[in-house]
Amino acid sequence: MESVRTDFYLDGRWVRAAGGQPLEVHNPTTEEVIGTVPAGTAEDVDRAVAAARAAFEGWAATDPADRAAHLDRLHAALTARADDIAHTVAGELGTPLKVATRVQAGLPLTVLRSFVDLAAHPPAPQTVGNSLVVREPVGVVGAITPWNYPLHQVVAKLAPALAAGCTLVLKPSELTPLTAYLLFDAIDEAGLPPGVVNLVTGTGPVVGEALAGHPGVDLVSFTGSTATGRRITHLAADRIARVSLELGGKSANVILDDADLASAVKVGVGNAFLNSGQTCTAWTRMLVHRDRYDEALDLAAKATDGYQLGDPLDPATRLGPLVSAAQRDRVRDHITRGLADGGRLVAGGPDAPVPQRGWFVAPTVIADVDPDSALAQEEVFGPVLAVIPVDDDDHAVRVANNSRYGLAGAVWSGDEERALRVARRLRTGAVDINGAPFNPLAPFGGYKQSGVGRELGVHGLEEFCEVKAIQR
Ligand code: NAD
């Protein structure tokens, strides 16, 4: 059944969008249109920002416990929709249902819960000499989000913004906007005060640019590609608006010679292929000590065999399609170029069989990748793993840091102190040692061209705050 949405959420209610050609949403598995959403305009953004501006003072002055209660109600309304959210993400993005349930629907609920707690118990003011240092909400937030984790990336902005006392206008990705509508159904049910959160759908060049360049927006919080992040920074610079950016990555999974190789490779392959490789933190470069290199390639090929492509709703499916035909073509080009640049095909490849219908790419492992080549330097955003041999820890660190990105990474070693030493030398915002679990309270964000600022936990809350010093 097609999901036809014709409204924006403005000032606490659904408002019918003016005419104009709606945007089609596709199911990447069937290639069929599964819904439409309105294509917003700069005037729609004006109305949304005006509503957020008008609501700001009242929301900022609301007692933290009341803000926490609102977020708690939103959590309940979203929990009631978790199944619908997982199916919608499986439909518009192609994430296999099991992963969609656990990650796409489950993770945002965990994150939202953490901000219910932080809203109720915000960091206390500090005393520095004769100064009282307090945090205040930054103002109206313009949130612009991508398609690969269509609920998580919104919640990672909306929850801390609201907890801090900011109001917000969201422009979700035009490729996966249906999930955002479910969130706003939940927001409507939770009864947040009018104007505190607003939704305008549309394209990046029209709605995204209008929001990033809007004089009424105090902070542009963006997740997406580095190229768009650069454009948004330019737009915000004219009025010196705050910008926080969560951008691309090319993270290294460093496997030292004393690692538990079976775990390191299995978890590493799984990480690289999660969500069909459309994950900003994906460990897309596997750096393996030369002594264990051939063994690691065997293990990687075997692990890749287990990633059955297919319909996200089929329980046997471990890998869905890519989000769009354009993305599929881009990823295939990366594979072809990687092989032309001297990479050796270990699994998958451009000619490996894939379902006839749908925008699939076979999970692919390429060995002997030159650390300076495009495959090792550019973000592919598909199920493609580049494997690179390294001589020792110093060499591994050099190769890992040979990137304009610095978002995430991993180190595997039988000696945790040694792993920690290597982890400390990696120029990235996060490093996981020996497959340690994701921590939703830990700061999340990038060094270098992977971004500016941090999301999640206390650090994420602080992104939405100004700091004031009061001397007495
Ligand atoms: P994208 O940059 O094309 O789009 C992201 C959002 O920006 C969309 O809503 C889009 O409509 C909007 N946009 C596009 N052009 C714009 C413009 N000129 N002005 C304002 N807004 C504009 O990115 P994408 O293809 O949707 O997402 C994939 C990228 O996101 C990858 O590079 C990935 O690494 C990155 N990403 C980063 C993180 C992170 O936390 N670091 C998380 C997920 C994805």
TrEMBL record:
Keywords: Oxidoreductase. The active site is at E246. This is aldehyde dehydrogenase (NAD(+)). It catalyses: an aldehyde + NAD(+) + H2O = a carboxylate + NADH + 2 H(+). Belongs to the aldehyde dehydrogenase family. It comes from Micromonospora sediminimaris. The lineage of its organism: Bacteria, Bacillati, Actinomycetota, Actinomycetes, Micromonosporales. InterPro entries: Ald_DH/histidinol_DH, Ald_DH_C, Ald_DH_CS_CYS, Ald_DH_CS_GLU, Ald_DH_N, Aldehyde_DH_dom. It holds the Pfam family Aldedh. Its EC number is 1.2.1.3. Residues 14-470 form the Aldehyde dehydrogenase domain. GO terms for molecular function: aldehyde dehydrogenase (NAD+) activity.
